[in-house]
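Example noted here:
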Amino acid sequence: MARKLFGTDGIRGRTNIEPMTAETALKVAMAAALQFRRGDHRHRVVIGKDTRLSGYMLEPALAAGFIAMGLDVIMTSPLPTPAVAMLTRSLRADLGVMISASHNAYEDNGIKLFGPDGYKLSDAVEATIERMVDENFTDRLAPSSMLGRASRLDDASGRYIEYVKNTFPKGLTLDGLKIVVDCAHGAAYKVAPRVFSELGADVVPIAVEPNGRNINDNCGAVAPQSMQKAVVLHGADIGIALDGDADRLIVADEHGQRIDGDQIMALVTRDAADAGTLKGGGLVATIMSNLGLERFLNGIGLNLIRTPVGDRYVVEHMRAHGFNVGGEQSGHIVLSDHSTTGDGLIAALQVLACVKQRGRPASEILNLFEPLPQLLRSVRYGGGSPLKFPLVKSRIADGEARLLGNGRLSVRHSGTEPVIRVMAEGEDEALVRDVVNSICDAIADFERAPAAAE
């Protein structure tokens, strides 16, 4: 059955347009409560959010749904997604909820669900919740004497800060490092500068003045140019850019050059292998990771396992096959010895530890392989099925044939917005560009003549 609510990272959409309405949030909470209400103990759920204006609409809607089903609700101030996952486990809650659309603009929002173990829900559990959303809950509401209670956890940010700092090597500090930290006006705008500062760094914080509408607005991991410029301007040793819910990061070296998730994963994986702490014999990444990363790992005797796009699928493979390092080129880095999901702050600390321990510039440490030419374009569409359009299908087949043996092509629907993402890589940069542009042009033709796909 096609899913209408859940995508690759929970539920996401434009605020006040289905499915991202207060009414649907209420029903999702009720359905999730039924799914996770087991036994006679007093059930509880942790709800966190980022800094979007709409979070203050969705939070009470979700809380009302859980309370009506008899669950106690623990709400936090704006906090990163991985903090909610951590608190769900720490507080022994039955469910965790993060209200965020991650790297999207403020007009969007989303709902991410975590089980009691702090992991994102499987496709099967999400499908069950989705089926239940349209059911009648009247006969399953909690009796008035068993309604849940709502409270706020005032020290949530302090708990998370200490949790993150404890992942940094004992006896090591960030003394002597100047770090630019771009918080995307998002969930980490308070906690991120404190983490680095308390570990001894000279911190230059930017994008730390959220107003409900400026999250990810020309800042953060999806637009790190301001961070890169600030690194050069302030003579910093390194720059860290987080996204709106701080589960991903992009780094800049001391020259302001952008370092993506593939290079970060190469560093972390190699160092873990050298230290004897790597599990699974390699790295779990997605189909988007550069072929240069795969060749680098193979060259040092390690494997790269690819999954569909989405850190949830990376984590599922890691858990099933015993890996402890995984992630995405976009900057989701999953270090399962420390966290159940991508955590931009924890990943940043691992990078900073390498910089401190080696005593060398970030530019020397974070460029471990030469990426193959790779181009990713995103084409927004209004509806229908662009990938069924004959011209699009023909261009994809032609692109695959042209890249055969010399590169890769990936064409997929985004799991979070109405966008087709076209990625190609190969030895020949001109060929890669021509293949991607040809397919994107065909998708644009579909938008002008959608009836042709029917």
In short: The CA atoms of residues 221 and 243 lie 5 Å apart. The chain has a mean pLDDT of 94. DSSP finds 14 helices and 19 strands in the chain. The chain has four domains: 6-154, 159-254, 261-365, 374-453.
